[in-house]
Design brief:
heterodimer; A: alpha+beta; B: 239 residues; 6-stranded mixed β-sheet; 4-stranded antiparallel β-sheet; 29% strand; transmembrane (chain A); cell membrane (chain A); ABC3_permease_C (chain A)
């Protein structure tokens, strides 16, 4: 080992606190990037493996009632490898000890042999025995929510008839990785469950003997998907088919893919910002650290060390610090990635989890972090070696201070000398002061960006659940009901108001652009669940055309005034051209609305409704729930308060925890920058401060001179950080949108306040630590020999 | 010891150095001519600010003159070539500074090794330290050594590469006279045993007695040159 390397090791040890602080900054950025990259990798790999092992279907189609022999015709469509028919129905369950009606999806199991497609993964117990019509397998999350185990039983209303069902097993299905009730947004395992039972039993209960109402297909690799859809729709349309769709549009998979897309967004934006900030800070801190090494650089040059040798020496220093940071970041990032992926499996139910991160994420994160640290530091080394050694070894000549205009004012006369020293230093080196302030401001900014999520989610929930919706519950019918059915509900106990709606599955086309998006028919003067724009509020639906959400309009590339072709996928399946009358902004989904009467006219089913929104008097709620449990034709009941609860629960367990990490990392940044700024200021000014001590200044007075500058820069940093934080939040929200979510840009005053307080706390803590060093400084020794 | 007949090791002509200190031009050297002969010990004497250190820095390739030339063994040094200066310092010059300038994180032996590792024909660090009387303090860190010992480590570091020129800037400036004598002894011994051409700055006139030749500095010029008829041993000096 050369003497220079020995010097390096001992220097690093001497500066260990600073080294650690810089390494932590680098580690924060690295960890976040690795967490995001490996989470995506794990989710994608797990999904792919799960789908493959359980033979998840490529295409899905539903019909009202198709004869069983049609299954053979479907299997013979060119490009189809396997077609499996089945029965899928809705039911209301009356769970013991749970007052609200529970929505269930009933799926048939083949009478003989294993499932050809969408195989269940049995988690406990066994599959249902086809000869015992009351045996069911229940979805595992639902079983967990209601503490069901094989041997338990509960009541279910199947087509208006109450049956007692026996649980024989629990299972997971690739079709319900993300298990949400029809019309729901987030999994609510208490209020929605999936049950599997023998096909004959289900056929008997729903009068579907020798028939099916759902078919799933796997395709050959070279299949023409559009052609298969066209032929399948042709076969099913006489039997009430509502349009085949691909795996990409399957609800659970769509949410899962959206989540992965969102993670990808997240992995691009947040860690990129973090890494950029970390790089900037590393750059700044290393540059100042190397400036304090100026004398030793001169000395090494005096001995005849070349610029490259000196550059490499400091590069090694940076590489060691960077490597410590990257290693810490990798370990933390891998751990967080695993943890984060496991968190997902609470909402996305997989029977197994593949977390086997490849090297790519680590290599990318490591290269970026080290590169940033090196780039910043080498610039400082270059400027240091450029000085002639005689000059480098001298302490820098006293800087020129000037009495500025402000110094001559009365105000300046009131300042004491220490305060004047602080101000003059800042005015003398405005760029350095600005950069130090900017560093602190960046940590405040990242903090604001992270905390903004909490505001955004609150605002999103308020907009969606409080301002846009006023119903207490939404009842969805299993079949279309005449509009008169509303009267039955109006007379139920506790119902204060009822408002119908119509929903039709549809494909909306603009030239070659096609979106499968159901259309909601809203009655004139709707109040409980009107069309709602996030800024303009409630909108009246004009007759004779469509109202599209901004996201849907973007996907279809249309604007108000354009015409689109709408194919309704139910009933007579009409195909009509409709004008786009208005575009409105939503935070969730990509809905399309129409006047209910107009929609009914086009559909041609007469004056019918798909469900109703109701307002309920809280005191009669229990009576209403009992009534609803026994009411026929109900496919689902969705409660707004339950939706709000699940929303916050889901957000609380995913995004908010995620935000917690960002806050922790932001604080690390803040501490890293502040600590280094103060330590470097101390080494730059040790002689000056020692001189002042000798002249009779007290410890507190010299502390004031040293820390006052950092304090003042922190105050400047906070408003600057607020401005940068707002810009970052704006960039992030605009880059973050997916088909599922748009995040509103909302920043409460309290958020700025919190960020400011955290930054101040970090500064105070660091100042306290450095001040203790100031007390321990051997001032006489500093004066005796040159530093 | 008379060295009049020996070859010229270093020759400087018409050196001018102007520093810009903020808004003021400082004339540190106003046209200096100087010759150092092989093996000679020259003392530069003068008040602070008279230009001694500036001259020494330029002669050692640590700084560049504003104008003028420096010839080392009859070859002109290209003062504007960073690489040339670096090789000149590495291969021919050893420095001793007033404030020792040891690397605090390296032991005495390692401080010397820092230089021997890049030198062409160095002596072992332990031998260099033995020459300055520190053979038993090899593994001490600077903080564990007295001022005189630290300065002797700095001398060992400067001579370990067997330099052709030893340039000492106030080597005893921070030391008491007893310790200063030890340091001067070490320098003189190197000068005699290795035949190293040595230039030493001091503002202490007594020290000038150990030199072959004394150059008096004032206001950026050499105002007087004196040949010592006989060198005195440092132990005979007192200040």
């Amino acid at each position: 080992m050369t003497s220079l390397d020995r010097k390096l090791i001992r220097e690093l040890w001497r500066l260990r606190a600073q080294v650690l602080a810089i390494a932590l900054v680098i580690a924060s950025g690295t960890a976040l990037l690795i967490m995001a990259l490996t989470t995506i990798e794990a989710l994608e790999e797990t999904t792919a493996a799960y789908y493959e092992r359980t033979r998840f279907a490529d295409m899905f189609a539903e019909a009202k009632r198709a004869p069983e022999y049609l299954g053979r015709d479907i299997a013979e469509i060119p490009g189809v490898r396997i077609a499996e028919t089945r029965i899928v129905e809705g039911a209301i369950l009356d769970m013991p000890g749970f007052s609200e009606p529970v929505v269930a999806r009933l799926m048939s199991l083949p009478e003989r042999g294993p499932e050809l497609l969408n195989a269940l993964v049995i988690r406990s117990g066994r599959l249902a025995d086809p000869t015992r019509p009351d045996e069911v397998v229940v979805s595992e999350p639902f079983a967990e929510a209601h503490r069901l185990k094989p041997g338990d039983s509960f009541d279910a209303i199947l087509r208006g008839r109450k049956r007692n069902l026996q649980v024989v097993g629990t299972a997971l299905s690739p079709e319900y990785v993300y298990a949400i009730a029809p019309g729901g947004l987030m999994p609510d395992d208490e209020r929605f469950g999936v049950l599997w039972m023998g096909r004959d039993a289900l056929a008997a209960a729903f009068d579907l003997k020798a028939s099916f109402n759902s078919v799933t297909l796997s395709l050959l690799p070279d299949a023409n998907e559009r052609d298969v859809i066209r032929r399948l729709d042709g076969l099913l349309s006489p039997f009430g088919g509502i349009g085949a769709y691909l795996r990409a549009d399957q609800t659970s998979n769509w949410f899962l893919e959206s989540e992965i897309a969102q993670q990808k967004n997240m992995s691009r934006i947040m860690p990129a910002i973090f890494l950029a900030v970390a790089a900037f800070l590393t750059n700044m801190v290393m540059a100042r650290l190397i400036q304090t090494e100026r004398r030793e650089i001169g000395l090494l040059k005096a001995f005849g060390y070349g610029n490259w040798a000196i550059g490499w020496h400091f590069a090694k220093m940076v590489l060691v610090i960077g490597t410590i940071g990257v290693l810490m970041g990798s370990v933390i990032g891998a751990w967080l990635g695993h943890w984060n992926t496991e968190l997902y499996t609470k909402f996305y139910r997989f029977p197994f989890l593949l977390y086997r991160p490849g090297p790519a994420g680590f290599v990318i994160a490591g290269a970026i972090s080290l590169g940033a640290a090196l780039a910043g530091s080498l610039a400082a080394v270059r400027s240091a070696v450029r000085l002639p050694p005689a000059e480098a070894m001298q302490p820098p000549s006293p800087p020129i201070y000037r009495r500025s205009f402000a110094a001559r004012t009365v105000l300046a006369g009131a300042l004491d000398e220490p305060s004047r020293m602080i101000l003059r230093r800042i005015i003398r080196w405005p760029v350095r002061a600005f950069l130090a302030s900017l560093g602190l401001a960046m940590s405040v900014a990242v903090l604001i960006m992270a905390l903004q999520w909490v505001d955004a989610i609150d605002s999103l929930a308020e907009s969606v659940f409080e301002r846009a919706q006023h119903q207490d519950a939404t009842v969805a019918f299993s079949d279309l009901q005449p509009i008169g059915a509303i009267r039955e509900f109006e007379h139920m106990p506790g119902v204060l108001a009822a408002e119908p709606y119509r929903f039709v599955s549809a494909r909306i086309n603009n030239g070659h652009l096609i979106e499968r998006q159901g259309i909601v028919g809203v009655p004139t003067g709707a109040i409980l669940s009107p069309v709602f724009d996030v800024e303009r509020g409630r909108l009246e639906v004009p007759p004779g055309g469509l109202m599209l959400s901004v996201k849907l309009a973007e996907l279809l590339e249309v604007k108000a005034g354009d015409t689109v072709v709408v194919e309704l996928l139910e009933g007579r399946q009409p195909r009509v051209s409709l004008p786009v009358l208005q575009i409105f902004e939503t935070y969730i989904g990509k809905p399309a609305y129409m006047d209910m009467a107009a929609l009914n006219r086009i559909a041609g089913d007469g004056r019918v409704i798909s469900g109703i929104h109701i307002r309920v008097d809280a005191s009669s709620r229990t009576a209403l729930l009992t009534t609803l449990k026994d009411t026929p034709h109900i496919a689902a009941v969705l409660f707004r308060h339950a939706a709000i609860d699940t929303f916050y629960k889901t957000m609380g367990e995913t995004i908010l925890i995620f935000v917690g990490f960002f806050v922790a990392f932001s604080m690390t940044l803040s501490v890293g920058v502040t600590y280094n700024s103060i330590r470097i200021a101390l080494s730059e000014r040790a002689r000056e401060l020692a001189t002042l001590r000798v002249l009779g200044f007290s410890r507190w007075e010299i502390s004031y001179i040293l820390l006052g500058e950092v304090g003042l820069l922190t105050w400047v940093a906070i408003p600057l950080g607020a401005v940068i934080g707002f810009s970052l939040a704006w960039y992030m929200t605009s880059a973050f949108e997916t088909e599922l979510y748009r995040v509103p840009l909302v920043l409460r005053d309290a958020t700025y306040g919190k960020a400011a307080l955290i930054a101040l706390a970090a500064t105070l803590a660091c100042a306290a630590i450095v001040r203790r060093r100031l007390d321990k400084l051997d001032l006489i020794a500093v004066l005796k020999t040159r530093e | 010891m008379e060295k009049d007949t020996s070859a010229t090791a270093l020759q400087a002509r018409d050196l001018i150095k102007i520093y810009r200190m903020g808004t003021v031009d400082v004339h540190a050297l106003r046209g200096v001519d100087v010759d150092l002969r092989e093996g000679e010990l020259v003392v530069l004497l003068g008040p602070s600010g008279s230009g001694k250190s500036t001259l020494l820095n330029i002669l050692g390739g640590l700084d560049r003159p504003t104008s003028g030339s420096v010839m080392f063994r009859d070859r002109e040094i290209d003062m504007n070539n960073e690489r040339t200066l670096n090789l000149y310092r590495r291969n021919h010059v050893g420095f001793v500074f007033q404030f020792y300038n040891l690397i605090p994180s390296l032991t005495a032996r390692e401080n010397v090794a820092l230089v021997t590792e890049i030198a062409r024909d160095p002596m072992p660090p332990s031998r260099a330290l033995a020459m300055v009387g520190l053979g038993d303090r090899l593994d001490h860190f600077p903080a564990q050594l007295s001022g005189g010992e630290q300065q002797r480590v700095a001398i060992a570091r400067a001579i370990a590469k067997r330099p052709d020129l030893l340039l000492c800037d106030e080597p005893t400036g921070a030391l008491d006279s007893k310790t200063g004598v030890l340091v001067l002894d070490a320098i003189l011994r190197i000068n005699r045993e290795l035949g190293t051409t040595t230039a030493l700055i001091t503002h202490n006139a007594v020290i000038a007695e150990i030199a072959n030749r004394v150059l008096y500095f004032a206001d950026g010029r050499i105002v007087e040159t004196r040949l010592n008829s006989g060198q005195r041993a440092p132990s005979e000096l007192a200040w």
